[in-house]
Design a protein that fits this description.
This protein has about 100 residues and is an alpha+beta fold. Helices cover about 70% and strands about 15% of the residues. A two-stranded antiparallel ribbon has the order 1-2.
Length: about 100
């Protein structure tokens, strides 16, 4: 519960900082994207850059998280096959 409240407060704080940054920097910049040039407000460019970095960071973690989940599944299976594993088994989150 506290984690959700902390996350919500952090999100609202980040949103407030983004709005404040956008209000304080009303200028526009040109983004050259290959064959096209876009004129966007500086604040929007800043927010998009942060969002894109966040998304790429999450996507770069997916392969490692998938490997860890696969290894965890394999180790749980091996533990179940071990004699006397019922006393040592860690409860599965699925029930």
């Amino acid at each position: 519960m506290i984690k959700r409240i902390f996350t919500a407060v952090l999100f609202i704080l980040a949103l407030a900082v983004a709005v404040l940054f956008t209000a304080m920097n009303p200028g526009e910049i040109e983004l050259e994207l290959g064959y096209t040039v876009l004129r966007v407000p500086l604040g929007l460019a800043f927010i998009l850059a942060i969002a894109l970095g966040w998304l790429l960071g999450i996507l770069s973690a997916v392969p490692r998280l998938a490997r860890l989940a696969n290894e965890r599944r394999r180790l749980r299976g091996e533990l179940r096959k071990t004699p006397g594993a019922t006393e040592l088994a860690v409860p599965d989150e699925r029930g």
